[in-house]
Structures are given as structure tokens and as C-alpha cells.
Amino acid sequence: MRRFILIGIIIIILMVGGIFTHCGNSTSAAPTAPAATAVESSAPAAGNGEEPAANSGYRSLQISPKFVQQWNIRVANPESRELVEKVTLNGVVKDNKETSYIINTSVCGIVARITKDTGDTVRKGDILCVLNSPELLEIKTRYIKAFQDHRLKQENFERAKNLIKIKALEQKEYTARESEYKTAMAEFFSLEAQLDSVGYENKILQAVKTAVQQDDTEQIKTFLSPLYSILSPSSGKVMMRDLNLGERVESNKTIYEISDTRKLWVLLDAMEKDLQYIDKQKPVSIIADGYPQEPFPGFVLTLDEKIDPELRTVKVRVEVDNSGGRLKPGMFVKGSIEKSVKETHLAVPSAALVKLAGVDGVFAADGDTFFFKPLEVLQIDANGYAFVKGLNPEDKVVVEGAFYLKAEFAMQAGENGEGE
Predict the structure, then answer these.
(1) Which of 6, 99, 194, 339 shows a CA-CA span of 20 to 30 A to 227?
(2) What is the pTM of this model?
């Protein structure tokens, strides 16, 4: 019996040993595919007061030639370019008063038709609206009557001058005819001036007088219309409209504002220390918040003669090119004016700049190894070059394909449990 028990214990021990052996084989590491990049990391030296090495404290990546070609990575040395220091001023876009027109009604009337609204583009002579004006019709009627009366009184006076020469007319009668003629002439010229002031040019009035002399009733009827068209005095855009259909408007009411927005004004605030760099006709580059990568060219028109006693600034008026119509009056902008001092600095294309963990820099290359190099960005010019401090002329900088490297850095940082 004792023998059978011993044999059973041995069998159990062998079975348990087989189970553990099987489990150990099942947990062995599986083969993995080779990674596209290899990550290296070095901790920055701290407390030594020295500037860290180019890749010290930042991860580096070893990229195979295959991926360098696939990602279109291109490296180049930084360029030595002329850096022009600039003064940057805050300002606001304004209407160009020299190309803006405030349109007031010249006659009373009821709005019969509106053809242009706020935001519409107009050309010089376009009809903005039409008024029905009984008052204007009365002036036209009086004008035709005054013209006829003036002609009659003029003929009577001419006859009187001939008669007085041969003593066939008393002096009293001659004086009366002269007075009537001058009164009729004053009335006629006064009405003609009124019509001229509301837009009836001399050629129009001359045509009316000819029609009266020739008894052209059709042309006279066309002239004697109560409808009055208000025309645009210039090409541009309708900036404001203040009237409605059926509304009665009185004379001298402001109903439209037209402005040629192809040239606008910008009012900049210049500090006293910046005045030494600002002169009339000096070029200015205007940057709007809505179009940060699209500078608008302009030039200085005037500088105020007085300094604001509270802000200690001087208003600088700039004329800016707005042929594309992007700038709007009221926009906040910045104006950059070049100083006369110019220096030479290393620069890289702005597309080469990246930001890692809130730090500006570029990716630099050392053979097939790429690392992040922090920099100080001095300025980005209108040609798309970033002037930087922290590079050497012999450095190899990634000028194309930096996006892929940044993405690879971020992915490797996630796999290693690091922050960007």
C-alpha cells in the first residue's frame, strides 16, 4: 500500500513540473518588425552655467535614407541676410476722406425707388435712389415761366431803347420797362441757379430753353417730371444708406455715404521715441489681424503737430493700398516702419521653424541623426525668412519636411511616456 502511495506522489510531481514548463515557453518574446526610426535621449547638464550642446536635453532621431527621401526632407545651411529693424505701431483703418462723399438731399420728396444699398459697388453717375418731389416740380414750372417772361421783358426793353433814342417814348415808360426786364432776369437766373445746384447742368437747361423756343412739348413734358434721381458722385462702395421706401425726406438730410475703398487711411499711434524713424512718404507695411501673412503696402501722409497729453503719442496718417478690398474701416492693424539701421543675421525659411514644448527652434541634422535645436526668433520678414539667434553658418537645418520630423518626435515621445 505504501508503495502505491509513493508512486502516486511521484506522478503528481511530474505533472506539476510539466505545467510550469509549458507556461514558461508560452511567454517568450515574439519577433518585432524593425522601426522606421531609432530614438536616443540625453539629459541636459544642469547647474554648470554653460550653454547645452546642440541636441543636449532633447530627443534625437536616426532616420533611414528611405524615409528621408519619402518625407522629402531637405537640409541647408542658414543664410546670411540683411536684417532691417522695424518700429511697430498700433492703429486703426479709417475712410479716406479725400475719396469719400457724404450725400445730402437737395430737395424734399418721398422715396419712390432705391437702387443701391450698403455694400454695393457703384460707378460715377449710377442712380442711388429716386425721389418724388412736388417742390422740385414747382421750381421747374416757375423756371419755364421765368424764361418766357424774361424773353418777353427783354424784347420790350430792347424796343424801349430804340424808341427812347428817337424821343418816341417817355423817360418814365422807359424806366418802367427797364425795371421789369431786370426783375424778370433776376427771377430767371435765380431759378436757373437753383436747378443747377440740384444737378441740372447747363447743357440740360439749354436743351429745355431750346424746347420752349421751338414749342417742343414732348421734351418739356419730360423735363416737368416730379421724379428726381440722386446720382453717385464717384465710383466706390456704398458705406451707408439712411432712407426707406415711402419715407419723406427733407432737404439737407444725409442719405448716403460713398467711398472709394481702393485707397484707405490708417491712423497709427507713434511714441515720442519712434518719431525719429518716421517721415512723410516713408513706406509702411500694414498687417491686419485677419490677414497676418498678407502685408498691405502704404506710405506716411502726415504726422500730427501735437502730442496727445495723456497717451504721449502722435497720430501718423498712412495711405494704404486696398485694391483687393480686404481692409475695412474700423479694423485694428499694426504698421511696421523700417529704421535706418541695418544688420546682418543668419536666417532660415520660416517653414523651418517648429515649436516643441513651447520652445521655438529648428531640426538640425548630423548625418542621418536629426535633433531639435532651440533658437531665439528675432523677426520674420515679408519674404518669409526668419532671422534667428542660436545657429552657426555651418549648421545643417531641415528647411523642408520638418512637419514629419515633429510628428515622429511626438509619436516616439508618446511611446516612451514622455511629454513633448
Answers:
(1) 99
(2) 0.58
